């Protein structure tokens, strides 16, 4: 009797139970594998121990910044507020709708607007978008773009037209990044009215191999800006001066700021070869992107400028830990060469700075004929649809053909950010960075392309 009782107890203990005894599903954000097997640490995990210790304070900082956003998103998942709003401004099939657009950078006016999309106006699988944004009477942005071909075609066509009006653009002289330690005295603001219209033909020769052929017509007109902080209007900083050294009213020195008085209008054609082995465009965990391109530009009408622009870039994504922790290495080089004796308009020179390249510096901070940029970025997940990033960048601008190139003429920046995204696009991006000599910068954007 006792032996039979023991056998029954052992059989019950061996039988699987349900409910509270079930293990939770694997969580990839914690490095758990879908196969349910226990993976022992490898030499790669041991090698990352020291970097993890060094980065732990910054990671804790950004995890702390993510906490309120995390709770806000959890609240939204419970009450479905954003989903209900989007459903009210989107058709049932999700192909036509309206979305908010917002962009803000330190020392620039915030701009807000709407983006309309229609993915069946030109046929199933096509795309049509119209965006309108404003930051006041002197800041307007409008864009219309269309892709009348489905994305699975070997030959894809896209067209785009955009208008930009702003009176807070930065000009800080054409030269090297570290040419003058008092560069803050050289920073000024100007206004711009710009129109761009063109199209791109993309040929997918094979998976991961693309050839882009683009044409564009551009028009730029410039004027005096407004005082923002310590930045003065451009006519007070780069004016023509008389023999006494005083500014001539309503003038800007054409030698220092070429093309400012008459503006520029040009026709541009370019070709770019792209080799892309990344597993995802918006959240890559492995692979690389190589870009090689060249553009030819010629002025129209009174604009006699003529120049070519060559560029090359590589971005490699390294999987540090189970496709959730990645290290991204970026290197980019640009060189613009004038043809003939007409000066190249200042607005068409190579520019570094802004939320996409050299994030520790304001847009337009560096301007010259060539540039070299390198970046290192570490990304990790902090929530289902959110990831954090830490980055360090190093770059500078130089003369024609990289004349005057020196690592001493380049500057670094460091920073971090959070990205809220879906599987195939970004919804919200927040970045904070510090650039040596330019101080702190912050960028915030929601579904915006400008």
Structural account:
- The chain is mainly beta and 450 residues long.
- The chain is 14% helix and 46% strand.
- The chain starts with a helix and ends with a strand.
- It has one domain: membrane protein fhac: a member of the omp85/tpsb transporter family (Porin).
- It contains five helices and 19 strands.
- The chain has a 16-stranded antiparallel barrel with strand order 1-2-3-4-5-6-7-9-10-11-12-15-16-17-18-19.
Write a short abstract of this structure.
The chain is mainly beta and about 450 residues long. Helix content is about 15%, strand content about 45%.
The count of strands amounts to 19
Strand order of the largest sheet: 1-2-3-4-5-6-7-9-10-11-12-15-16-17-18-19
Unreliable stretches covering 5 or more consecutive residues: 8-21
**Residue share in helix:** 10-25%
Distance between the termini: 82 Å
List the SSEs and their pairings.
Layout: H1 2-14, H2 43-47, H3 49-79, H4 81-88, E1 96-105, E2 111-118, E3 127-136, E4 139-147, E5 155-171, E6 188-206, E7 209-224, E8 232-233, H5 234-237, E9 264-276, E10 287-299, E11 306-321, E12 325-338, E13 350-352, E14 366-368, E15 370-383, E16 386-398, E17 411-421, E18 426-435, E19 439-446
Parallel strand pairs: 6-8
Antiparallel strand pairs: 1-2, 1-19, 2-3, 3-4, 4-5, 5-6, 6-7, 7-9, 9-10, 10-11, 11-12, 12-15, 13-14, 15-16, 16-17, 17-18, 18-19
């Amino acid at each position: 009797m006792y032996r039979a009782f023991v056998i029954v107890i052992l059989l019950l203990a061996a039988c699987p139970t349900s409910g509270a005894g079930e293990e939770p599903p694997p969580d990839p954000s914690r490095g758990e594998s879908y196969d349910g097997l226990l993976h022992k640490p490898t030499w790669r995990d041991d090698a990352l121990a020291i970097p993890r210790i060094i980065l732990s304070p910054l990671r804790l900082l950004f995890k702390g910044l993510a906490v309120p956003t995390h709770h806000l998103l959890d609240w939204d998942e419970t009450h479905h507020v954003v989903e209900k709003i989007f459903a009210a401004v989107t058709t049932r099939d999700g192909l036509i709708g309206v979305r908010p657009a917002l962009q803000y950078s330190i020392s620039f006016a915030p701009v807000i607007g709407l983006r309309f999309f229609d993915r069946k106006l030109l046929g199933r699988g096509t795309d049509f978008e119209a965006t309108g944004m404003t930051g006041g009477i002197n800041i307007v942005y409008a864009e219309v773009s269309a892709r009348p071909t489905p994305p699975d075609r070997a030959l894809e066509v896209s067209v785009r037209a955009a208008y930009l009006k702003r009176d807070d653009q930065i000009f800080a002289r054409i030269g090297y990044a570290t040419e003058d330690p008092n560069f803050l005295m050289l920073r000024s603001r100007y206004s711009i009215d710009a129109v761009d219209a063109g199209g791109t033909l993309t040929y997918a020769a094979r998976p991961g191999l693309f050839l882009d052929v683009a044409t564009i017509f551009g028009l730029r007109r410039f004027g005096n800006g407004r005082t923002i902080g310590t930045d003065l209007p451009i006519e007070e900083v780069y004016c023509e001066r008389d023999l006494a050294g005083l500014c001539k009213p309503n003038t800007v020195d054409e030698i220092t700021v070429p093309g400012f008085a008459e503006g520029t209008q040009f026709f541009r054609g370019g070709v770019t070869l792209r080799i892309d082995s990344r597993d995802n465009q918006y959240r890559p965990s492995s692979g690389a992107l190589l870009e090689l391109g060249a553009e030819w530009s010629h002025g129209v009408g009174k604009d006699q400028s003529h120049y070519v622009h060559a560029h090359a870039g590589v971005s490699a994504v390294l999987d540090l830990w189970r496709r959730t922790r990645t290290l991204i290495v970026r290197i980019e080089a640009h060189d613009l060469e004038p043809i003939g004796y007409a000066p190249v308009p200042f607005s068409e020179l190579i520019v570094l700075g802004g939320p996409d390249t050299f994030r520790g510096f304001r847009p337009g901070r560096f301007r010259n004929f060539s540039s070299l940029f390198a970046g290192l970025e570490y990304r990790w997940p902090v929530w289902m649809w959110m990831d954090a990033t830490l980055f360090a960048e190093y770059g500078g601008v130089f003369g024609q053909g990289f004349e005057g190139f020196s690592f001493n003429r380049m500057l670094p920046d460091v920073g971090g950010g959070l990205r809220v995204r879906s599987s195939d696009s970004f919804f919200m991006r927040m970045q904070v960075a510090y650039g040596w000599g330019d101080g702190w910068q912050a960028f915030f954007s929601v579904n915006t392309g400008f």
